[in-house]
Amino acid sequence: MALTVDFDAEELWLAEDPANAARPGVLSQARYGAEIAVPQLLDMLDRIGVPATFFVCGRDAERYPSVLESVASRGHEIGHHGHSHRSPHLMAREEETEELVRGLAVLREFTDRVAGYRSPSWDLSPHTLDLLVEHGFSYSSNLMDAVLPYVHAGHDLVEIPVHWTLDDAPHFWFDATSWDRTIRSAREVAEVWGEEATAIHDGGGLVTLTVHPQIIGRPGRLRMLERFLTGVRAYDDGSVWLATCGEVAGATRAAASGARS
Ligand code: ZN
């Protein structure tokens, strides 16, 4: 199992609409995620001994350097989540390259190696995989075509597969514009995650859990996440490996080259 945290902060709302820069009420949700939720999440992960991979926008890292230092100093992995939070499929190749390079430069101030890329929308352009190889990435975590991680055919990249089921956003996201979404209880979401994670455990595969500080960081939800992760930790029969995406990518490469030789 790999716990992944998409550190969206202000960039999420600025990508949706640059005019949000002038809306402190909207952006207060971003600040809550970065300044309140992430520190509490880090304390909780320390308490239960679970490693995570934080995918961070370069501009958010510039905005919250002390939060990023805290993520890195507690041993979690830092991956690339765009420089801004704009989706690569909306960009020309040159612009996408610039986003990658600028984000990398910022994130490398906090970590020796940025091995992984998760696009802001789990969406890729036709150029993304080429660009990731070109810029030294080891894995992508964006696609929904597998339960087991795999090495891309034609690209020297591991894929760490994801799915909406194991994400917090589709279950909890409340649309304040339309009010057409109902907020689910943490108990219901724990049930959805539990069904999926147990079935993946029994059949063999990777549980990539994706959470967002501004969403999972509400007090009742954080409590649920701690219970969920403690439950995973309680499997003491050696059948569960809790790892960062980088570690999973390394093991996937090793297994693939072992199978070839
Ligand atoms: Zn995001």
Tell me what you see in this structure.
The chain is 49% helix and 10% strand. It is of the alpha/beta class and 261 residues long. It has a single domain, classed as Glycoside hydrolase/deacetylase (TIM Barrel), CATH 3.20.20.370. It has a 4-stranded parallel β-sheet with strand order 3-2-1-8. Strand 6 (150-151) and strand 7 (158-159) form a beta hairpin. The longest helix has 25 residues, at 24-48. It is globular. The structure holds zinc ion (ZN). Zinc ion binds at residues 6, 8, 12, 81, 85, 120.
Task: Give a quick rundown of the structure.
This protein has helices spanning about 10-15, 25-50, 60-65, 65-75, 95-105, 130-135, 170, 185-205, 215, 220-235, 245-260, and strands at about 1-5, 50-55, 75-80, 115, 140, 150, 160, 210. It is of the alpha/beta class.
Entry keywords:
binds zinc ion, four-stranded mixed β-sheet, alpha/beta, single chain
CATH superfamily: Glycoside hydrolase/deacetylase
The residue-averaged pLDDT reads 95
Q: Could you say how many structural domains there are in total?
A: 1
- Helix tally equals 11
Distance between the termini: 27 Å
Bound molecules: zinc ion
Give the beta-strand count.
8
| Unreliable runs | none
Overall form: globular
Q: What helical percentage do the residues reach?
A: 40-55%
Q: Strand count, sense and closure of the main sheet?
A: 4 strands, parallel
In percent, how much strand structure appears in the residues?
5-15%
> Class, according to the CATH hierarchy?
Alpha Beta
